[in-house]
User: Fold these one by one.
Assistant:
Number 1:
Amino acid sequence: MRKIKTSVIGSYPVSIETLGIMEDYFNQNENKSWNNYIKTAVDDMVKAGIDILSDGQTRDPFIQLFARKLNGCRIRDRVEVVDKIRYNGPITVDDQKYVRSILPKDRMLKGVITGPFTLSKSCIDMHYNDEKNMAFDFAYALKEEAKNLEKYVDVISIDEPFFSNEMPAYGKELIGIITEKIRCPKVLHACGDVSSAIPDLLEMPVGILSHEFKASPHLLDEFSKYSFSKDLCLGSVRSDNQTVESVEEIVKHIRKAIDMFGDRIAQISPDCGQRLLSRENAYGKLRNLARAGEIING
């Protein structure tokens, strides 16, 4: 067996001191104002023993994080699309550059992109009146972000939670627009019950599929119905429950998956982003995940 790497999905809970952020912003010190919060998330992941880290998505929730920087979008109560969606320059790149500057050399960095279908489903369309065209314009904009991200990260993950609710006929094409010519490893993450979408997911132009196998353990049986060559990132601790799973429980879950899929289990991670957990519990889950990984790899 090759070594199974521990990873995160994206978000991590960090308490934001909003007054300080505002003061930095009005003093034209916007970028620096977030560095301490990003460092807090990264330091927790490093201390927990995680192999593949993120920036913690501390700056914004995952929809607003991208919509805020794209031409054609505005944010009021929700994200509204009011004009043609266009790329307007790097969105998360500066944060990844900062993480790279503080990341230990033995750790890897994951750049996370919110997927075009999920963005289109999360916005109020006041311009296109055509969900498909809007999704494709999101995809072409995100393609530029992926090209910029690739210079600084080791892995790019596309986050498409709406694929568990609906898989459009053009889903593979959307993902392909972003991943085309991207040479680093590519992951597609979709939380929720993706049982009905598995045939389409197995056709996606990525090397690793990442799913919520801990909260939805029946997905192991559902994936076992298919023959496939893609690798899996096994959700191994829940992101919707504050209870910190024991190392023994996590090891048992991983071993069951290995018994079913062998070397196809390439990574283990939380089921989803950890933003809704307390910081103490999020860290505890990552720490026990890393300890379970050491036992499995030992």
Number 2:
Amino acid sequence: MTLGVGVLVSGRGTNLQAILDACATGSVDARVVLVASNRPGVPALDRAARAGVPSAVFAPSEQGDRAAAHAAMADALVSAGARLVILAGYDHILAPSFFVRLGDVPVINLHPALLPLFGGRGMHGERVHAAVLASGATESGCTVHRVHPETVDLGEVVVQRRVPVLPDDDAASLAARVLEQEHIAIVDAIRRFVPATTRA
């Protein structure tokens, strides 16, 4: 049975594209059943439309508050048949209401560093890469990890991929190198959930 995947996005959607491409080529036995965003008009939603994948926007300002928006998003994911939810560049911390409504569906997040290093509130985007460079670290990478209520970047590691930090790196060049590995890591992570979900 093909794994139904829901993807949460807030921006460009390059990791969403990697997921869509892997599903289309059959390199992973999965299908994106819904792309959900907290922001209207982002490029990731255009990617979903081009792939013929349903999408929806759950903006807290239009739903009443964050808890209501996240609860509605979870309801939509369950209704669409998602058996795995992926945060791929989603920039809101999920409210407890999301997990209550989602039930036992696992949630994973893609973080652009080697957790537990350089994680936590406020650590996203180029802030992460700038912090890596400031620390003098000789390597960085990305982590796909489980997401649990009331935590940030603390869930169990599913996949990690590493890249060297080069002497002439700036935040942008390091981010680009890490992003290449994110595209591989997120597809690899989905594969980890296909057998267990299929047996269920």
